[in-house]
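Re-run with default settings, no changes from the original entry. Doing this only to confirm the output is reproducible before filing.
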Amino acid sequence: MTIKHSILAVSARRLALAGLLTAALLPGMATASPFAYVPNEKSGTISIIDCATDNVVGQIKAGTKPRGLAVSHDGKMLYVSDQPANALLIVDLGKRAQVGTVPLGESPEGVGISAAGDWVVAASEITNSVSFISTATNQKVFSIKTAGKNPEHAVFSPDGKWLYVSAEEADSLDIIDVAQRKQVGSVKLGMRPRGIAFTPDGSKAYVAAEIASTVYAVDVATRTVSAQIKPGNFSNGVTIAPDGKRVYISNGKDGTVTVIDSGSNTVVATVPVGKRPWNMAITPDGKKLYVANGRSNSISVIDTASNTVSKEIAVGELPWGVVIR
């Protein structure tokens, strides 16, 4: 063996050893499983679920009636609306403790976070407004009045340009231009619109109207309804798979989740879950859907490949929804 070949062989062995050491020291970094966070309205707690085992691994005290929630993009902070306090609670997930409070409008509910992670928003039902909180300062910067009454959910488009707000008492979807900081349009829907979710490419948004028991596909470019789908009774929560191919709708009266093919806008499956399923979240790989069952005090875990429930997880009283990070 020449000197050159000998040096190359030693270098290769060192690189291989370094790789083995890295794998040993940093197990599971590339495939780390996320956590699901569940606000329990009556218990005043947040349940923490390890998505690898689907077991509850902790509880966090969060006001007296936690509802909407969002996780910061670095996974360090949890933002939770506390309805009786008219406030957004800031929870340090490392400490598993509340570390701040931001005043909001009266009766806050849905909470969302922008794709860039710079804004957290909270919809307040009684004051008909949406508050914008900077994640850099954890301070409210401004609020926007909505034309529709009783806003429940506020969801950013994937590009961050639009904020869609469901107005329950106006039977409409309010559209806010984030850059202009004002409402620029609305789309008339059926009675009591609630959950909202955008397709990954941002071309469509699906909105569930509870009393109408109808899901509306809204074309973002034209601000018109392009399709109406009938899921189960009292449709409310909406979640879309990461690849955009499936739309999931929770049906509060039926105790089911409807699976819709987004290409054809047709129902392809119905999955029985717990009582009064509400808001939901899907894992980043799209393999598991977590459904909050308000009257069962549980989370149903749906295997999205088979459209069956793989596990029922007991949480606190009256779980309102789920967020996964």
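The CA atoms of residues 77 and 101 lie 12 Å apart. The chain has one helix and 28 strands.
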